[in-house]
Design goal:
Rossmann fold; alpha/beta; globular; single chain
Length: 216
């Protein structure tokens, strides 16, 4: 079972369900943020993109306190697989399941375009079907996607193989061009690009499909 969270303002939950249910054939369920438990048999939690709570206060800062997030935090700390995309990545950093923070893009503009990325580390479930150093293209659509962490955290992430994807070139001022990361235990993944928008030739490419498949 793939549990796909939905907050007020989420707008990619049905895209994600289509990817998992209709393309990859995995049972999936959309979970409203006020629920307090995950479905029985959940194997993967996905926090999709959008604008939870209108991005008021700070992107992801309010959603982090929704009832379902207490269950997600416990699930992740018990080794469960969690994937956060765009706003979901922001929520995971706010919940301290991933290090660092996402801040306003350099130039203060919303960016929406296909983006070239470099695969930096494949010793993890999320990118195990890719080759290290490979170049892929995924859509991005965000205003608060510039990744930040202090120098000590960045060094530790590099040493632990937690930096998974880098922009090429850097569109938003992210430190070290970081586009996607994981936690030290490598069961929680976050990225700003949208793999669910690159799963069919009709959408312009399939570079995101292996990411989603690999977590099943």
């Amino acid at each position: 079972m793939v549990a796909i969270l939905c907050f007020p303002g989420t707008n990619c939950e049905r895209d994600m369900q289509y990817a998992y249910r209709d393309i990859l054939g995995a049972p999936s369920q959309i979970i409203w943020h006020k629920q307090k438990t995950l479905p029985q048999g959940t194997k993967l939690v996905v926090i999709p993109g959008g604008f939870s709570y209108g991005d008021y206060l700070r992107s992801g800062a309010i959603a982090r306190f929704s009832p379902i997030m207490q269950e997600v935090i416990a699930y992740a700390r018990d080794g469960g697989l969690v994937l956060g995309i765009c706003n979901g990545f922001q929520i995971l950093t706010e919940a301290e399941l991933l290090p660092g923070a996402l801040k306003r893009n350099e130039g203060l503009c919303f960016i929406s375009k296909p983006q070239t990325l470099e695969v930096c580390d494949t010793h993890n479930r999320f990118l195990s079907d890719y080759s290290c150093g490979a170049t892929i293209t995924l859509p991005i659509a965000h205003a608060d996607g510039s990744y930040y962490a202090d120098a000590k955290t960045l060094r530790a992430m590099e040493a632990n193989g937690q930096i998974l994807l880098r922009y090429s070139p850097n569109p938003n001022g992210s430190l070290e061009a970081i586009a996607g990361i994981c936690n030290q235990e490598k069961n929680v993944f976050g990225l700003m690009p949208h793999p669910e928008r690159a799963i069919e030739p009709l959408l312009g490419g399939v570079d995101g499909l292996a990411m989603l498949r690999s977590l099943l």
